[in-house]
């Protein structure tokens, strides 16, 4: 078995080196990959893998935090658990804190997404791109719509998480190597912020609080075990690390819109996560008792950017064009947008925001005959 696994890695690596897409990994053999999609990891990152005892082709988990504008890559080490490899500052994300609801709301998605080889896009108009797979089964069960929401380069976002070209080159290569190692997929966990008691207390007035508390269950499973949480959906809710009850005669079957089947949470995972949850609840209650200041529900800005990029890309954080929660918060006033007659954003940011975003739909997708016509 070990020999077969090594042989598979050798064959797939050879195919990449030849500039071809392996049929079993990233698409059709007739489509040559661009050099940027087959580039080796930088020497300093390869050295970091060695120092952290992380095999080059071991699985990864990607974690995204909007408010902090950070993307983490975790990688499985020789113990079989995931450890943090590297944190990348996010160059640009769009929308506001909260999940994506509909096509065109400019919201970057939040939730748990499984990335398969077919979602890797080496021919993106934004250097390289990884499709998040939105909408997943949870999104579909809750009638949330959108398409081709990516993690990509070029530091420009319309519902995506935009990195620099150098950053996405590393992230893409780490994902590619995980597939070459035999992983059928890797998980992206996208959060509004780090789900600490302090952050949840600040955002306690948000209409998304219940959704975020549900995401926190999966977050706690990962943070306490350093194992990728198993994700299912039933009754339009996320369920984490579920397994059949003892002596159950039937396997678990989850229907995203149907009633949840009888299940238990893996006892070892549940025990560790429960301890964290209790400690966090005590801290959260104390923060509420101290009446810590609450963050505004609606920022009025279109997305965010890590502070390290602010000087490099002035004017890319703008007033919001679309109010994500307007459908059930009609009392919020409209936000002026860019025009040529002296609106607030025109005065503040000038003509930087008036330039249309150009996209070549033919280059958008990994398989352009299947996926076309989206800004990412």
First-last Cα distance: 40 Å
What characteristic shape results from the CA principal axes?
globular
Characterize the main sheet.
Answer: 5 strands, mixed
The helical percent reads 25-40%
Strand order of the largest sheet: 3-2-1-10-5
Low-confidence stretches: 1-29, 326-376
Order of helices and strands: HHHEEEEEEEHEEHEHHEEEEHEEH
In angstroms, what is the radius of gyration?
21 Å
Describe this protein's structure:
- Strand 2 and strand 3 (82-89) form a beta hairpin.
- The chain is an alpha+beta fold and 376 residues long.
- Strands 3-2-1-10-5 form a 5-stranded mixed sheet, sandwiched between helices. The chain has a 5-stranded mixed sheet with strand order 4-9-8-7-6, covered by helices on one side.
- The two termini are 40 Å apart.
- Helix 7 (209-225) packs across helix 8.
- It has helices spanning 2-17, 35-38, 43-51, 137-141, 165-180, 197-202, 209-225, 267-289, 344-349, and strands at residues 60-65, 70-76, 82-89, 92-93, 111-115, 120-121, 129-131, 150-152, 161-162, 186-191, 231-234, 237-240, 242-243, 264-265, 301-302, 318-319.
- The chain is built from 9 helices and 16 strands.
- Mean pLDDT is 82; it is low at 1-29 and 326-376.
Can you give me a brief rundown of this structure?
The protein is 27% helix and 16% strand. By secondary structure, it is of the alpha+beta class. The protein has a five-stranded mixed β-sheet, sandwiched between helices.
